[in-house]
Write a structure and sequence with these properties.
about 45% helix; eight-stranded parallel beta sheet
């Protein structure tokens, strides 16, 4: 398998009471994710990297790469930034730490045309020897990347680039990208696992879900891989309802951390302020019910401490 394929959960960043990254809790979480038979580890926006200092972001990269490498799994490190200089610096650091690949989102605060975006992504690909996942995070932030832009990157760099399209409508957008690259591009599902069934039929090579129920996404991926559609749909029902509750980056962070905390994976579920979503008791209760249903569908007790 290429390093960027299969189930590659995006990790959450646990914070201690003083607001610093809780390194012990982070390493526990990373090993727990890999114990759920994930194919590797990924960092991304729900890892709260936009709210980290440069030093904290480097610290996160170092620990994710170290744990992944110690377990013989790939680490895919997000290096997108608001400036090309910062993105290249993050890419170089990830490569030095032993990352197997990079993930790059477009700058979030700028409205760039395809020419500027091409220069941004191409410069990062050219400056590193690692494969690069071009992330269209516009499902919840930023602007959609055009299929033409992504196809041009594939035409120029071939298998050096993979894609994580998140712009709605997910299915048709994915198919357009697949067709524009002659079915040659590696494409990953990026909607928390909710679109795996449809996306698998359109040719994806993997998924980058949240870490909180990666055991369910693993079971779903295995089911579609062997054509067990009955099991796949049984898992997909509560998973889709759970993902539908996460409509913003802050929503993803709050719900994912709550679920990890309830499973005993994280000691706290605090996120880095300021944030635009707080989980209330009724939302927490509904999330817990859905996770219970998901556990039953996947054939496990999700809430037993690990």
């Amino acid at each position: 398998m290429p390093p960027i394929s299969g189930v590659l959960p995006v990790v959450q960043s646990p914070f201690a009471e003083d607001g610093s990254i809780d390194v012990g809790a982070l390493e526990h979480e990373l090993n727990w994710i890999l114990d759920q038979h994930a194919d590797g580890l990924t960092t991304g926006m729900v890892s709260e990297i936009p709210r980290m200092t440069s030093e904290e972001r480097r610290l996160l990269t170092e620990h994710v790469c170290a744990v992944a490498n110690s377990r013989g799994r790939p680490a895919i490190i997000s290096c997108g930034a608001e400036s090309l200089r910062s993105a290249i610096a993050h890419a170089h650091h990830a490569e030095e730490c032993g990352a197997a690949g990079l993930m790059v989102n477009a700058p979030l605060t700028l409205a760039l045309d395809d020419g500027e975006l091409y220069g941004y992504f191409a410069s990062i690909v050219e400056t590193s020897s690692l494969p690069v996942v071009v992330q269209d995070a516009s499902g919840y932030i930023g602007r959609p990347l055009s299929v033409g832009l992504q196809a041009k990157l594939f035409l120029e760099f071939g298998a050096r680039v993979a894609f994580k399209p998140e712009a709605p409508p997910i299915g048709p957008t994915l198919s357009q990208l697949r067709d524009a690259t002659g079915s040659g591009a590696a494409i990953l599902e990026g909607s928390g696992g909710a679109a795996i069934i449809d996306s698998y039929r359109r040719g994806i090579v993997g998924t980058m879900p949240g870490a909180e129920v990666c055991w369910a996404v693993r079971a779903l991926w295995d089911a579609v891989s062997v054509g067990d559609w009955e099991l796949a749909y049984r898992i997909s029902g509560p998973l889709n309802t759970l993902v539908a509750m996460q409509t913003t980056v802050d929503g993803y962070i709050a719900l994912e951390k709550h679920i990890l905390w309830r499973q005993g994976v994280l000691p706290r579920h605090a996120s880095r302020p300021p944030n635009g979503f707080s989980i209330d008791t009724e939302t927490a209760a509904e999330v817990d019910r859905l996770v219970d249903q998901l556990a039953a569908a996947a054939g496990r007790d999700a809430l037993a401490p690990f």
